[in-house]
Amino acid sequence: MEAKKFRLLELLGTLSMGTDLSIGLPFESALRCGLISLRLARAWREDSSLARDAQIAALLRYLGCSSTAFEYASFNAGDDIGLLRLFSDVDVADHQEMAERLQKVALDASPAEREHAVGRMMTPGLVDEVSAANCEVASRLAEGLSLSPGIVSALADTYERFDGTGVPRQATRNAISPAARLMHVAQAVEVLARVSSWDDAVAGVARRAGGQLDPEIVEVLRTKGPAIARGLDAASVMSLFLAEEPEPHAFVPEGGLLDIATAFARVVDLKSTFTLDHSVTVANLADGCAGALGIGGTQRTAMRAAALLHDLGRLGIPNGIWDKPGVFTPAERLRAEEHAYIGDRMLRSSALLAPLADLAGAHERLDASGYHRRVPAAWTPPAARLIAACDVYVALVSERPHRHAHKKKEAAAILGSEVRSGRLDRESVRVILDRVGQAQPRLRGELPAGLSPREVEVLALLARGHSNKRIGECLHVSESTVKNHVGSLYGKIGLRTRAGAALFAAEHNLLDAGVFEK
Fold it and tell me: What pTM was computed for the model?
């Protein structure tokens, strides 16, 4: 695989389907939003840089949503995806419509669960805090991918409103980035057009002019509507999306594939507080074991990318499944296993990423008892066997909602049993167990951003969604002391939300500091 030959927009466009799933929208919703935003930009101003920023920012608009799935799930009895879908086409300033949608929150839950969920959602300022977290995570991820400042700023302004009542800055009018204002109009018309005609959608957008949306851009949509709508009703808009990219087309530089795959692995891992570093840890372990198994060169790069993306389909499954504290029912297990099919489908939808699909089958087993394709050993390449074994090991030594993390010796015994049963590859397991026995502890002097050891302990528990009270219980300190530590560490890392702190902790390998919690 030569990453330098990859179109940036094709990679981002394919992987954006995962963010579509994370908010309950159909595949290619983000692609359509990006195409609309691009066309609006060209009709509004003759500025190719703005057009490019608008296209990519709109494509990545939902990049941070998975990071707050933990909070969204608490608003809707475990169904974070259903909640986001429920409110996807609503103007939050329309109090009547908001009240009507609130009546549908946690509708299928028990009375007690529903009361708790609605109470959480009605807590003053909490929804705004969650929205601000989405912006913080999305803009940080975009910055890590070295995307333009215009894109980073637009994602930071995802939930701002033209009238100044948005979050997190309450910015107004021209203080909101131009690409964000284009993105806002594009998103509104895209989601409304899915449930009504294009003309009705444009009329609905016009009613939001001056409130949520920039009236000048809304007028562009109204007057140029037919040209902007061209081809949007096609079964797939990927070819249009790529064909209309401003020249010169952007290609991924050497090593860029792994950077993009890492960013989307972070998106996936952030979905549950129990998997904050799972995909990246699996990829690191597989990469560290590759040489001993003769996996090198482009094959090793492909293996690492596949390991990073092996759980991409998790974005399409509600957190009520992933965070369930008990054993799955048969129906819940089928729902959880569906994520392997979803991720496989996404990877195979792109000629660039399709070669990774066979390697990314981390849940397949050599005796064909895995999922979703249930392929036997003869069809499983060595790199895929290694990823599967790494996935099992990392899961075993990590906290899960239904159990504590296993000790290394316990995990080794379980892996051995899987080898003897013919489910996991013997050589892969041997190399993994040799590798993890050589792991070196972190030295205190290596802590980033000037964090103290105690602040790192607080950060690890905060990232996993624990309250200040619960953190205090784990650390045997007062709640007020924890609050002071939280304020201090936020200042040091330059972030303001739990989701942002979770991303920082994962990026700097600080999550293991919370293992004493058990």
Answer: 0.93
